[in-house]
Write a structure and sequence with these properties.
Number of strands: 0
CATH superfamily of the largest domain: Tetratricopeptide repeat domain
Strand content: under 5%
Radius of gyration: 24 Å
Shape: globular
Mean pLDDT: 83
CATH topology of the largest domain: Serine Threonine Protein Phosphatase 5, Tetratricopeptide repeat
Distance between the termini: 90 Å
CATH class of the largest domain: Mainly Alpha
Helix content: over 70%
Length: 152
């Protein structure tokens, strides 16, 4: 093969390889997290008040992602609404172990402590929320304040 056409092909291949590398490095095709279908069903079940379906689907979601703090928080909430307080507390604590800044877990465990009559623990979680959300800038602060105020 003559040198000029071979050189042209080589330059073209190198150019295409560089373009592909640049394309990937600038995030043009970012790796998107794969949605967890079980968690999506569980979240919808929470919205509709189907606690058992939420429990079943969060459990399935956690098999795929055992260190997902949001799934643990959601499962804890479903257990609490289903009447299984011990399991609810276990999953709220696990959520906070994984992510100590998870707002939903602080709100939910605070509400659970409040419902169980432990106002001091409920206020502890409210204090954490207030630090995480200065100036009552998060709905979780407002909701937990409201729950605690109802008891007064």
């Amino acid at each position: 093969m003559p040198i000029l056409p071979m050189l042209s092909r080589l330059v073209l291949a190198a150019t295409l390889a560089l373009a592909a590398a640049a394309h990937a490095s600038y995030g043009v095709t970012p790796a998107m997290p794969i949605p967890n279908a079980d968690a999506e069903v569980a979240t919808e079940a929470l919205r509709s008040g189907d606690w058992q379906r939420a429990i079943d689907n969060f459990q399935a979601a956690l098999k795929a992602e055992p260190d997902n703090a949001e799934f643990h928080s959601g499962l804890g909430y479903a257990y609490r609404r289903h009447g299984s307080d011990a399991l609810a507390f276990r999953h709220f604590r696990e959520a906070l172990r994984i992510d100590p800044t998870l707002l939903s877990a602080h709100e939910r465990i605070g509400e659970a402590y409040h419902a169980a009559g432990d106002q001091a623990k409920a206020r502890e979680h409210l204090a954490v929320l207030e630090q995480l959300c200065p100036g009552r800038s998060c709905q979780e602060v407002v909701d937990l304040e409201r729950a605690i105020a109802v008891a007064k």
